[in-house]
């Protein structure tokens, strides 16, 4: 089964709510990623044209992470209820990752349980930081413990915060450069903090081939001993405990580098719909075939299904 793990769907109700709480959702509107019948049917036709059987939906980067707990809970519940409705209407084409009301841990664990146990979600989705805090921050330990206990998936998507750098944000590079930088930082923080080894049952998926990780992993191995001596295992060993979606904007050398560095068995199909649409969407699939040869079949048609239990 060909499953796309990096796909978005936002309803106007959800975007209106989070904008009322202060998030800017302007870049998420008008892209054909709503839940209206015409948008959904056009999406299905596009999926069919690329041979994609199913998409796993996530609201990231418009996640319900708010300092105000009531706002975070309301937004997370609305997102998950809407996703449950959409996946219920189209169970053969859509699955979903649960949205979590972070950083509020009791509420997060409650919503995770509701999403997985009552709404049929296949995992949860977060961004590369939680209101500026690392995913390896000790305050998130209860979430990692529960994800590990359940053996479920955590999908990690960039925040769109330019990695906290004005050198990115003020020079029109928030998504073209900032997003993969955020991927790289978040994954490396997890590796150095020992999250993959301490919580081996969590199936962590990083977006965008892990950012620059395929290019940097040998450097990280060479330097962690003196720069991060507390890391519990070699970073390259830890990195191969994670999975990575194949969103690489059709750049064949990038997907080859990821497969050679991280292992083709750790790659799962992603398209970044609706930001890769039309021919770009089809290219998101075909470039994997072009770049990986005999390994492409596993990446496109087996890895995600096994990972998600679908």
Description of the structure:
It is built from 14 helices and 11 strands. The chain has a 6-stranded parallel sheet with strand order 4-5-8-9-10-11. Helix 3 packs parallel to helix 4. The termini are close together. The mean pLDDT is 97.
Features:
13% strand; 3-stranded parallel β-sheet; 14 helices; 310 residues; alpha/beta
Span of the ends, CA to CA: 8 Å
How many alpha or pi helices?
14
Class by helix and strand content? alpha/beta
Rounded to an integer in angstroms, the radius of gyration calculated over CA atoms is: 18 Å
Query: What characteristic shape results from the CA principal axes?
Result: globular
**Could you spell the SSE succession in H and E letters?**
EHHEHEEHEEEHEHHHEHHEHEHHH
Structure summarized in a few sentences:
The protein is of the alpha/beta class and 310 residues long. Helices cover 48% and strands 13% of the residues.
Please specify the SSE layout and strand pairing.
Elements lengths: L2 E6 L3 H9 L16 H14 L3 E5 L10 H21 L4 E3 L1 E2 L5 H14 L4 E5 L1 E2 L2 E2 L6 H10 L2 E5 L8 H4 L8 H16 L1 H4 L4 E4 L6 H15 L7 H5 L3 E3 L6 H11 L4 E2 L9 H15 L3 H6 L1 H6 L2
Parallel strand pairs: 1-2, 2-3, 4-5, 5-8, 8-9, 9-10, 10-11
Antiparallel strand pairs: 6-7
Helix pairs in contact: 2-12, 3-4, 9-11, 11-12
């Amino acid at each position: 089964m060909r499953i796309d793990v990096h796909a978005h769907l936002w309803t106007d109700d959800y975007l209106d709510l989070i904008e009322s709480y202060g998030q800017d959702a302007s870049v998420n509107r008008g892209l054909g990623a709503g839940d209206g019948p015409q948008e959904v049917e056009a999406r299905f036709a596009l999926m069919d044209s690329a041979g994609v059987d199913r998409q796993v939906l996530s609201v990231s980067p418009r996640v319900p992470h708010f300092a105000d707990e009531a706002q975070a809970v309301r937004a997370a519940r609305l997102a998950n209820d809407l996703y449950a409705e959409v996946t219920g209407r189209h169970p053969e084409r859509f699955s979903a990752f649960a949205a979590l009301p972070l950083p509020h841990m009791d509420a997060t664990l409650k919503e995770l349980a509701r999403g997985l146990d009552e709404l049929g979600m296949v995992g949860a989705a977060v961004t590369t930081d939680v209101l500026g805090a690392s995913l390896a921050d000790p305050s998130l330990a209860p979430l990692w413990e529960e994800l590990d206990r359940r053996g479920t998936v955590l999908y990690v998507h960039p925040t769109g915060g330019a990695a906290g750098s004005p050198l990115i944000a003020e020079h029109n590079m928030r998504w073209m450069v900032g997003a993969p930088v955020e991927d790289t930082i978040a994954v490396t923080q997890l590796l150095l903090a020992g999250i993959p080894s301490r919580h081996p049952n969590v199936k962590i998926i990083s977006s965008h081939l892990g950012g620059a990780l395929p290019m940097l992993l040998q450097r990280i191995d060479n330097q962690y001993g003196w720069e991060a001596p507390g890391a519990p295992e070699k970073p390259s060993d830890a990195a191969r405990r994670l999975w990575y979606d194949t969103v690489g904007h059709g750049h064949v050398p990038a997907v080859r580098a990821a497969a050679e560095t991280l292992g083709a068995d750790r790659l799962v199909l992603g398209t970044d719909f609706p930001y890769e649409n039309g021919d770009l969407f089809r290219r998101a699939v075909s470039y994997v075939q072009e770049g990986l040869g005999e390994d492409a079949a596993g990446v496109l048609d087996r890895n995600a299904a096994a990972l998600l239990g679908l």
